[in-house]
Amino acid sequence: MMITSWNRYPLVSHTNVLDAVHRHESLPITSGPLLAFGSGRSYGDVCLNEGGVLLRTRRMDRFIAFDESTGVLVCESGVLLADILDLVVPQGWFLPVTPGTRFVTVGGAIANDVHGKNHHIQGNFGHHVRKFELLRSDGERKLCCPDKNIDWFRATIGGLGLTGLITWVELQLLPIINPFMITESKRFHSLDDFWELSAEAESQWPYTVAWIDCTATGKRQGRGILMLGQHAPAQADLPTWKERPRRFPVDPPFSLVNTLSVRAFNLLYYNKPIKKGLALTHYKPYFYPLDGMLEWNRMYGRKGFFQYQCVLPPEASQEGIRDLLNIIANSGSGSFLAVLKTFGSKISQGMLSFPRPGATLALDFPNQGKRTLRLLNELDAVVREAGGALYPAKDARMPSELFRSAYPLWEQFSTFIDPQFSSSFWRRVKE
Amino acid sequence: MKRFIIFGATSAIACACARLWVAQGHSLFLVGRDRAKLENQLADLRVRASPGQYLDSMSANLNDLEQHESIFSRAEAVLGGVDVVFIAHGTLPDQKACELSVGQTMDEIQTNALSVISLLTLAANRFEAQGSGVIAAISSVAGDRGRQSNYVYGAAKGMVTIFLQGLRNRLAKKGVAVVSIKPGFVDTPMTVQFDKKGLLWVQPETIAQGIVKAVEQRRNAVYLPGVWRWIMLVIRHIPEAIFKRLSL
Ligand SMILES: Cc1cc2nc3c(=O)[nH]c(=O)nc-3n(C[C@H](O)[C@H](O)[C@H](O)COP(=O)(O)OP(=O)(O)OC[C@H]3O[C@@H](n4cnc5c(N)ncnc54)[C@H](O)[C@@H]3O)c2cc1C
């Protein structure tokens, strides 16, 4: 059975793929290493386990309890964020933190300690986890929360699935009034403009993110569109909105993403007409623009693609982002839209959590073999020099030395790994 | 709003159906073997339901036919009557093992056919008396023709299919609908040991949508997904002289 992560690279084979269905049952006994697999929305190999066994969690998808007066939700770890939203939005609640796709499981969101457009206010997903149960291969069930088994709590949040199986989770949700967002888009013409605009916006808006044109050079470098949002207050007249999902129709043998299409797309995107002033937007297109096109990852062809997401500390952000964009523009191998955002100062809970103060840049590159790997190595040099980090959830190739320097708690973390668990990612960065 | 009894409620297909029925506002009484699984399922449905919906469960081994009458009475008592009976329990026998063991073959027939027929009989008499209701049961495409690879299962399902046809004929004039559901290959825990690469494998959620629709429309017999109607049409019409040489 072929199982891949979202970027379809690397292609690895597993000796077995099993389903976890009931949370009260014990873990399967396997000869090789085991790893939980949620929705496979990671890019790279944190959710892969070459030569070992994957334990899919999507069938473990039951709600356990929901208190609509306090917004405390308890559910199994295979529940999708999309299922949670469908349940709680009509009752006036929202996920306090959400990544750019809602098709991820709660377990996967914890294991990668995912972040969203509101990091500067709400921190990571892990900040809103009240407790969870961790099932270990020796059969022990650990209840983890900030006042019980705190070390296990901190190891498992952002723990890349290595500490055992998260069976159920208790979350604190965020109150909202309706499914709509007040949004505003602002075009900026250079990186300098971005820094200024984004600092100002973050003091006023809970959600901010910028999409930039990574093909622009010179004075225009870093130009893009800043997208701001907040949950809408009560209104008498809500617009109607209906989702019409599309599916990327074909599996092209080669990538449709190339220098030409990327340039054209970025030019169009940067120049797209944007509405002046405030707009009322449904939360789905606002938070999940890519979910509107199912299976868009097919666009990159059979060889798949790489995502590259780094964070650079505040003092090195401005220069570092400039250097990264220079390297990308020179390489000619651009990304459709790059995402640029600043992280706030909330300290991550997890020992291996990615978010930390500074600026984060994320890009997609079609896999063109050696050429792409060379480019990514060049980007690594900038990240290393700046004292930054790469995001394991979106990595298929970072050198182990970069991982270790960026995640200094990795050794302490290692003592919490379940002896039966491992992943392709972990074996790679530990080497 | 309708009141449902679901037998084999924790099976993957029934689970998916139950979620859809709860979302439509119906009340459900779940019957399954494993108490812990039932309770987890009930909690999930309670989170999804509105306060006005009634949800309850009872664990029972359906091979114990003696219990069937009391399950019905209990469900009727707590729901205040029943409008739909959905029978979804079953096991997938190990054909090779059955060939070597009469006991195992009989056990499989008991679970997949006789226990179902007992429940169908009780449901039919009740609904006939009340002059309304829908009875739906999961049979299988495997019941359409005996094949070497799973004829124990196929024979049990075939018995259910014919029994349902008879009931439908008997109850048609009495305001009671009888729906036969014939799924093809479904990706559930029951079929873990199969390699599911083929295009014909579908998720239980897809089958559930078809079932909910068929119950609503009081259909007669539905193949799920629909292509199986045509596949089975061909399979049923291959002459026996040829069929017996095929390794299907
Ligand atoms: C379009 C798109 C946009 C994205 N945007 C963002 C973003 O804005 N911010 C962000 O942070 N990320 C983002 N991501 C990445 C995504 O949020 C993470 O990779 C997420 O963790 C994926 O969850 P999953 O359920 O698919 O888990 P998988 O990818 O299947 O697994 C991820 C990790 O979780 C572990 N795991 C899964 N379930 C369990 C469990 N029950 N117990 C223990 N470990 C478990 C796995 O072992 C693995 O290590 C995006 C991804 C896509 C495709």
Description:
The complex is a heterodimer of chains A (431) and B (248). The longest helix of chain A has 18 residues, at 314-331. In chain A, α8 (314-331) runs antiparallel to α9. Chain A has helices at 81-88, 106-111, 119-122, 150-156, 191-202, 259-271, 283-287, 314-331, 370-386, 400-406, 410-414, 424-430, and strands at residues 16-19, 34-37, 53-56, 63-67, 72-76, 93-94, 129-135, 141-144, 165-172, 174-175, 180-188, 207-212, 224-231, 246-247, 279-282, 293-294, 305-312, 338-343, 358-366, 389-390. Chain A is built from twelve helices and 20 strands. Chain B is α/β, with parallel strands linked by helices. Chain B has a seven-stranded parallel beta sheet with strand order 3-2-1-4-5-6-7, sandwiched between helices. The chains are: A alpha+beta (431), B alpha/beta (248). Chain A binds chain B through residues 1, 18-19, 21-24, 59, 62-66, 87, and chain B through 12, 36-37, 40-41, 43-44, 47-48, 189, 192, 195-197. The complex binds flavin-adenine dinucleotide.
List the helices and strands and how they pair.
The complex is a heterodimer of chains A (431) and B (248).
Chain A: E1 16-19, E2 34-37, E3 53-56, E4 63-67, E5 72-76, H1 81-88, E6 93-94, H2 106-111, H3 119-122, E7 129-135, E8 141-144, H4 150-156, E9 165-172, E10 174-175, E11 180-188, H5 191-202, E12 207-212, E13 224-231, E14 246-247, H6 259-271, E15 279-282, H7 283-287, E16 293-294, E17 305-312, H8 314-331, E18 338-343, E19 358-366, H9 370-386, E20 389-390, H10 400-406, H11 410-414, H12 424-430
Parallel strand pairs in A: 1-3, 2-3, 14-16
Antiparallel strand pairs in A: 4-5, 5-9, 6-10, 7-8, 7-9, 11-13, 11-15, 12-13, 12-18, 17-19, 17-20, 18-19
Helix pairs in contact in A: 8-9
Chain B: E1 3-7, H1 12-23, E2 27-32, H2 35-48, E3 55-59, H3 68-79, E4 84-87, H4 95-100, H5 102-130, E5 133-138, H6 151-171, E6 176-183, H7 204-216, E7 221-224, H8 227-237, H9 240-243
Parallel strand pairs in B: 1-2, 1-4, 2-3, 4-5, 5-6, 6-7
Flavin-adenine dinucleotide (FAD) is lined by residues 6, 35-42, 46-47, 57, 77, 99-101, 104-105, 107-109, 111-112, 114-116, 160-161, 165-166, 290, 393, 423 of chain A.
